């Protein structure tokens, strides 16, 4: 006797497409959510998480604000590049860059030349980013946010740099961090 029951199908199962990258690098201005989204993304993938700002502070034993005031921005940038180079040597890692990292040519070359590395630009208008940073509880001091006009100027200068160094672009303005995680994964699995 032939069964009238339909063959089971997999139509209602969404297969998880593999990622074509071994590293996801998040870039964007201060407050874009690189650290917050990066940590969530790494947890979701079961990957390591590397926060470049945190690793600079750990490796050199002082806060970024102290480095800026005692040694200047240029020395901070050298330290930042050293940490980025090391982070890019890892696999299955989500890397949250510091907001200014793509301004440095060395960092842009490192990103370009490291294979299987997906760079994602987390974007939002300056006013939203500024408010997020001001409202962030327990946030570390961001030296380059102390002067709002100068920060807005940097934001304008950097916008094309972020766009050029990232293949993927996510607009986060009206999203919660978890929605941004979903948007990033959708892009990278497309
Ligand atoms: N859609 C969103 N995506 C990410 N973060 C968001 C979002 N909405 C609000 N936030 C909040 O913005 C704040 C700043 O986020 P975060 O510290 O991750 O930024 P960042 O890009 O790492 O900044 P920085 O370059 O200074 O390290 C956090 O309090 C975070 O919860
Ligand atoms: O936008 C920037 O230049 C910075 C952003 C932060 O992530 C830190 O890397 C530091 O405060 C500088
Ligand atoms: Mg951060």
From TrEMBL:
<keyword id="KW-0479">Metal-binding</keyword>
<dbReference type="GO" id="GO:0009073">
    <property type="term" value="P:aromatic amino acid family biosynthetic process"/>
</dbReference>
<comment type="subunit">
    <text>Monomer.</text>
</comment>
<feature type="binding site">
    <location>
        <position position="35"/>
    </location>
    <ligand>
        <name>Mg(2+)</name>
    </ligand>
</feature>
<keyword id="KW-0057">Aromatic amino acid biosynthesis</keyword>
<dbReference type="InterPro" id="IPR027417">
    <property type="entry name" value="P-loop_NTPase"/>
</dbReference>
<feature type="binding site">
    <location>
        <position position="99"/>
    </location>
    <ligand>
        <name>substrate</name>
    </ligand>
</feature>
<feature type="binding site">
    <location>
        <position position="142"/>
    </location>
    <ligand>
        <name>ATP</name>
    </ligand>
</feature>
<dbReference type="GO" id="GO:0004765">
    <property type="term" value="F:shikimate kinase activity"/>
</dbReference>
<feature type="binding site">
    <location>
        <begin position="31"/>
        <end position="36"/>
    </location>
    <ligand>
        <name>ATP</name>
    </ligand>
</feature>
<dbReference type="GO" id="GO:0005524">
    <property type="term" value="F:ATP binding"/>
</dbReference>
<keyword id="KW-0547">Nucleotide-binding</keyword>
<protein>
    <recommendedName>
        <fullName>Shikimate kinase</fullName>
        <ecNumber>2.7.1.71</ecNumber>
    </recommendedName>
</protein>
<feature type="binding site">
    <location>
        <position position="175"/>
    </location>
    <ligand>
        <name>ATP</name>
    </ligand>
</feature>
<dbReference type="GO" id="GO:0009423">
    <property type="term" value="P:chorismate biosynthetic process"/>
</dbReference>
<dbReference type="GO" id="GO:0005829">
    <property type="term" value="C:cytosol"/>
</dbReference>
<dbReference type="Pfam" id="PF01202">
    <property type="entry name" value="SKI"/>
</dbReference>
<feature type="binding site">
    <location>
        <position position="158"/>
    </location>
    <ligand>
        <name>substrate</name>
    </ligand>
</feature>
<comment type="similarity">
    <text>Belongs to the shikimate kinase family.</text>
</comment>
<dbReference type="InterPro" id="IPR031322">
    <property type="entry name" value="Shikimate/glucono_kinase"/>
</dbReference>
<keyword id="KW-0808">Transferase</keyword>
<dbReference type="GO" id="GO:0000287">
    <property type="term" value="F:magnesium ion binding"/>
</dbReference>
<dbReference type="InterPro" id="IPR000623">
    <property type="entry name" value="Shikimate_kinase/TSH1"/>
</dbReference>
<comment type="pathway">
    <text>Metabolic intermediate biosynthesis; chorismate biosynthesis; chorismate from D-erythrose 4-phosphate and phosphoenolpyruvate: step 5/7.</text>
</comment>
<keyword id="KW-0028">Amino-acid biosynthesis</keyword>
<keyword id="KW-0963">Cytoplasm</keyword>
<keyword id="KW-0067">ATP-binding</keyword>
<keyword id="KW-0460">Magnesium</keyword>
<dbReference type="GO" id="GO:0008652">
    <property type="term" value="P:amino acid biosynthetic process"/>
</dbReference>
<feature type="binding site">
    <location>
        <position position="53"/>
    </location>
    <ligand>
        <name>substrate</name>
    </ligand>
</feature>
<feature type="binding site">
    <location>
        <position position="77"/>
    </location>
    <ligand>
        <name>substrate</name>
    </ligand>
</feature>
<keyword id="KW-0418">Kinase</keyword>
<comment type="function">
    <text>Catalyzes the specific phosphorylation of the 3-hydroxyl group of shikimic acid using ATP as a cosubstrate.</text>
</comment>
